[in-house]
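Protein folding task:
====================
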Amino acid sequence: MHGTARLLIYGAGVYNLLFVAFHISFWKLPGLNWAQELQRLSPMNSAVMQVMNLALIALFLIMAFLSFRHNGDLTGTPLGRSILGGFTLLWLLRFIEQFIFFGYRGPLPPVLFVGFLLYCIPAVMAFMEAKESMDNAP
């Protein structure tokens, strides 16, 4: 696979680790004020919010691990390309959800678009290469 695709996927791994750090900080982030805000929710809804955040942290860790450890597989195998497509879709949806739920505020929308591009560009390259290989097969 093209070196650019591999480099972008490594970049996406770093990107996901930054989101791990960001989500870990939710309990202490002044803008979110979770210490008080979570107490205003019912115990069930407070637990759901925190469990969803922990699940996102785990997902970002898995995405980073796969981006670093199985970089070539993400572009070079059918399963890898499917996973890469899923990562691309996740960041595209998160980018769109930003506008639906939060509007365009602060630096987050462009940051989310970068996440989409870090996976989208290698995914497109990998799918095009796979299609070309199938077209050239005997």
About this structure: The longest helix spans residues 108-136. The chain has one domain: 3-131.
